[in-house]
Amino acid sequence: MTVTSTRYLQAASETEVISDRDTAKPPPRLWYAAEPPFKGYQAAPSGGFQQSSIDTAIVIDNGASLVRAGWSFDKRPRLSFPANVARYRDRKLNRTVSYVGYDGYADATTRGQIRTAFEPGSSVVTNWDVMEGILDSIFVKIGVDGTDGCVNRPILMTEPLANLGYPRKTMTEIIFECYSAPSLAFGIDSLFSFKYNKGTTGLVVSSSHTSTHLIPVLRSKAVMSSVTRLNWGGSQGVEYLLKLLRLKYPNWSPSQRFAEYQAEEMIREHCYVSNNYDMEVSKYLDWSGLEERDHIVQYPFTEHTVIEKTAEELARIAERKKEGGRRLQEQAAKMRLEKLVRKEQELDYFKELQGRLTNQTKKEIRRLLDEDEIRDEVQLDKTIKELEKSVRKARNKDVGGPENPEEEAATFPLLDVPDEQLDEAGLKQKRHQRLMKSNVDARARAKIEKEKEKARKAQEEMLENERRENDLEGWLDERRAARSAMLQKLKDRERQKADLGNRKSLASQQRMKTLAALASDQPGRKRRRGGDDDSFGANDDDWTVYRTVATGEQSDDEEEEDLGAGLKGIEAQLLKYDPSFTEQNTREAQTDWTKSMMHAFLRGPRPFNPESQQELHQIHLNVERIRIPEVVFQPAIAGLDQAGIVEITADIINQSLSKPEDRDSVLRDIFLTGGNTMFSGFDDRLREELRSVLPSESVVKVRKASDPLLDAWRGAAQWAGEPGFKQSAVTKDEYFEKGSEFLKVSISVAVAACLQALGSTLTIRQEHNLGNVSFLQQA
Amino acid sequence: MAPATPSPEDSHQQLLDQLDLTLKPRPFRNQAWKPSQRRNKNIKQIIAEASRKEASVLVTQDNSGDSTPLPPTSTMGTGAVTPLPTNGNAVHSNIAQAAQNLSTMVLEKNLQIAKSSGPIATYTNIESAPSLHPAHQKHYCDITGLPAPYTDPKTRLRYHNKEVFEVVRTLQQGQAESYLEARGAHVVLK
């Protein structure tokens, strides 16, 4: 009982949904795919070098997404461009050209030659030729005049946290030996940003272009032993989105690849961090409100031009056609008339001839007939009769006179006469009459048959109606069974069609077997066993063997239509008599696109027209909008075998910080910086999740950097004006005098000094760890 | 006769010339700077080289007692003073050996510092560890990204419902593998 009631309930709610689905969605809002980020020629900002003194530092935030550079007195970096160079030999000019940063996006040739300075997916510099190009460009554009053959200003640069020894050594080499800078210091971008935002104790969560770092800072010094890196950042997000899009639209037109800068733009524009991912994602493709969640990105396309004709033109064409038809008809009528006249004349002539023949001698008759090439009087009679008939027919056609009554009274007198009594002509006549008679008989038989069939159908219908009236349930069950059988058949057919596409499938193998059996001369095993009595074709299903052999599209359609028509008939019956079978239960409604979740996923809340070039060049972003930023919280989504930031934070708080007061003060300042934290909802989500893993009484405060992108540079510029910078920078003399070992030590101190500048009072000792890495220890 | 207006190609070439870094004077560069041809190394190479170096140094360190004729007194403790070669043995005044002594000393000093101050943060060891939290092992549909209660045993793809399953079964060859790759669950042949 309960079951049936729920079924009705469901049906009711479904109707509601359907009626909701019937209402058309508002016209879509389109976003357009990004153009290559080419900015045209930009004159270098002038006056920097003149304004600078020998102590003014050049500050370079050497980030993997954008390199930012400027003088330490600037309010914001003068230059900001992607860390890549397009350098190649131009065959036409016969020289090497190189375009740095956005200039590399100038045209298709330069775009194809772009190389980045960083190892993909990390912020470690690995391509030093590109790096030199970037540095060259920076020094040229900020106006270093180089009169004494060197960059005569100190340099402050950022580097990744826990940088490897080799890249640091190489960078130092380049700065001192190629550019002969007076001194150099390294620092860490996220810590600069923290310092600029006046942080002293807290947890720096820096999610940047290539990685996410979590750095606990206690009283202005980083707790290096619990620094953690998650190998996920904006660039990995871009890669992931590209992968997903290629899979989502495998038949995307090859002329328009999904480009990285387009994916970057999509992530920036459309992605956000969901506050409750599991709940939101499971409802993301629901019908209601889908038009809000589904964002359409339109790629450029060319519409195939269909020449549209106006109504006037169409009318003119129709008129012309009609005119032509009329003219043809007139012509035909004229010709018919001419023929008729000719025939009438002939008829008159023959009739007159017949009249003349009476009362003539035989010889005279012979002569007259010969004149007209007629064999004998019988033939004359026949000719006259035929002419009369055709004249009458023609007249009827033109004038529309009464049907010929003679037809029905067709008699076959000769058939009863035995052959012996007939001459040659009579025999011929008799044969002809027999043929005619069998014709007439067959027609009569067919008529009777038709009548019988009609009667049978009526009888059947009556019986069925009777049965329906007597036993509705049974009848309905039968209908339902028939319907499901037909559905099954349709499904099977579809599956078979799909299977034949796959060469290894059972269906394909079966097909090859059948073909081989048909081609071989030996009779098959079955034939031998069953003798010659071949009952192939008696059963309708036998003919499906041809379906398995033919792979093309040729014959499918008609049979499909047959099945479809049959199904429709049954469904119509069910609709009429079955109260539980409603419009929504029909196959058509079931396969309706508004019901399809895949349609919602691929094409959004509107119908899809595969003919439209515009719609073929649209990307629908829906689940992706929260799926991409979610990876930082759940790296397993993208196959990254690392813990998410919430788990890392909990680990750092609970395990690395031993003192409870440290724990509390760190939790009071969780600081977000870096481009990948700019998603809306990032801070709320982090706060929510932290609250769920931390003790209930702990106070969690999450804040964002005032400018997550530029604050690192600003912090560095600020520090470059402080005495800490001068103390910790390595000078050129030190480099040349004391060599690489000292260099490493000093530079590491410089990194530490960045932390010192934050106000650290503790001694900071660094460590050169046997060639590999490591630079900083707190004792 | 030069054309009055430059053709589009000409103006584009002009723009390119304007952008071209190689055409700009760069007097601040040291003319004698000739970088090594093989300075571009990827991270894998760098880490491998570093760890090889480390390993070889460790071996030297282990053997230091045997190869150095001087007693171990010189290496432990403060390690600040190099013992003088007082016995006048020609072998000991060998410069190579002296250098070896020095490097051993530095190493040991470093080792001592390392011991005293705990592990050192390096590029490789600050990576976050795999997640241990069972709540984070949620399954999402490989195709739509929705929660996925099912797994297709044939392709190993996770899927949301029977409609997605139909799509899974009609995937072209190789497509299923790329879906797995996006989740990092594909088969890697070595």
Automatic annotation (TrEMBL), chain A:
Residues 440-467 have a biased composition (Basic and acidic residues). One of its GO terms (cellular component) is Ino80 complex. Pfam families: Actin. Keywords: Nucleus. Residues 533-543 have a biased composition (Acidic residues). Gene3D superfamilies: 3.30.420.40, Actin, Chain A, domain 4 (3.90.640.10). Residues 395-467, 516-546 are annotated as: Disordered. It is found in: Nucleus. The keyword DNA-binding does not apply. Belongs to the actin family. This is Nuclear actin-protein involved in chromatin remodeling. It comes from Heterodermia speciosa. The lineage of its organism: Eukaryota, Fungi, Dikarya, Ascomycota, Pezizomycotina.
From TrEMBL, chain B:
The keyword Repeat does not apply. InterPro entries: INO80C/Ies6, Vps72/YL1_C. Residues 139-168 form the Vps72/YL1 C-terminal domain. It is found in: Nucleus. Pfam families: YL1_C (PF08265). Keywords: Nucleus, Transcription, Transcription regulation. One of its GO terms (cellular component) is Ino80 complex. GO terms for biological process: chromatin remodeling. Its main location: nucleus. PANTHER family: INO80 COMPLEX SUBUNIT C (PTHR31200). This is Chromatin-remodeling complex subunit ies6. It comes from Heterodermia speciosa.
